[in-house]
Design goal:
Layout (H helix, E strand, L loop, with lengths): L10 H22 L15 E2 L5 E2 L4 E6 L8 E2 L7 E2 L1 H12 L3 E6 L2 H5 L2 H4 L5 E2 L7 H4 L2 E3 L4 E10 L14 E5 L3 H9 L4 E5 L2 H9 L5 E5 H9 L3 E13 L2 E3 L3 H17 L1 H10 L3
Parallel strand pairs: 3-6, 3-7, 10-11, 10-12
Antiparallel strand pairs: 1-2, 4-5, 7-14, 8-14, 9-12, 9-13
Helix pairs in contact: 2-9
């Protein structure tokens, strides 16, 4: 292609052009800085802001990660709108409804949830997975107010000679990695061989196959196994544990909004209705 020398514009035109460009650039900068009402771009948190002012990773949706299955707290359910069911699922569904958001649930490993990895990676807005609030976890995560008080428990086959934690010397005990149940077993199951599993599903299969002699974990989960027959909860342990909904560190707006919804659920009686669906006793 041949080159062509272009005529130079007059100086007055150059100066006018420079002034126009400067004016436009200044207007662009002022626009980018936002309005005087203090609003900020949704991109600040890498998500989308909804009408409530909350920033979520998907516009109009509360995305919740959970380690599934872990009944009665979370389980798969193809017939439900979210594809999941359980106490935790009903709680976060009520929270999403109160915030006028859709609910999306993602299956995730518990270790990725309790460590903060899933939330920090932007995989979800919240973790709802029967997660006990601990000082160690609070270093990496922010938690809602406690929404469920739990106990630990020991599950054994009905024909087992194990009647208490004192009988576990030499026994193989299934625990879930990253959980307070595992921590309790490490401190109190003297002489036991602890076998760690990634989830309750693998633990329960192991005790059914005779690969472990007992399971030490949250009471409601072991009661669910007992109800299926062939197994008994022989001992429970009070540990002052309270479950919380976990959120990314520093997401104060979402924590406050979730706590407000939990309070409204308790005041209206909706929390009791959900609780009684899963934990009511005769």
């Amino acid at each position: 292609m041949s080159s062509r020398t272009l005529p130079r514009p007059a100086r007055g035109i150059v100066r006018s052009s420079i002034a126009l460009v400067s004016t436009l650039a200044l207007a662009t900068v002022l626009t980018a800085c936002g309005s005087d009402d203090g609003g900020s771009s949704a991109g600040d948190e890498g998500g989308s802001s909804n009408e409530s002012g909350l920033t979520t990773i998907a516009d109009g949706t509360l995305t919740v990660c959970s380690d599934v299955p872990y009944p009665p707290f979370e389980d798969f359910d193809e017939t439900s709108e979210s594809g999941f069911k359980g106490f935790d699922i009903d709680i976060v569904q009520a929270i999403a409804d109160g915030l006028e958001l859709e609910l999306a649930v993602k299956d995730s490993s518990f270790d990725a949830l309790q460590s903060g990895q899933a939330l920090n990676a932007g995989q979800c807005d919240m973790a709802a997975s029967a997660m006990t609030i601990t000082e160690e976890r609070q270093a990496a995560l922010d938690f809602s107010d406690g929404y469920y008080d739990s106990q630990q428990s020991l599950l054994v086959p009905e024909d087992s000679d194990i009647a208490s934690i004192d009988d576990l010397d030499g026994a193989r005990v299934g625990v879930q990695q990253g959980t307070t149940g595992k921590a309790y077993a490490e401190e109190n199951a003297t002489g036991a061989e602890l076998v760690s599993f990634p989830s309750d599903a693998e633990m329960f299969q192991a005790i059914k196959a005779g690969q472990v002699d007992a399971l030490l974990q949250d009471l409601p989960v072991n009661i669910n196994h007992q109800d299926q027959g062939g197994f008994s909860v022989v001992e429970t342990y009070s540990t002052d544990e309270s479950y919380g909904l976990a959120m990314k560190k520093g997401n104060t707006a979402l924590v406050d909004a979730v706590n407000e919804q939990l309070t409204e659920m308790r005041d209206s009686g909706e929390y009791d209705e959900i609780y009684n669906t899963y934990f009511a006793t005769e």
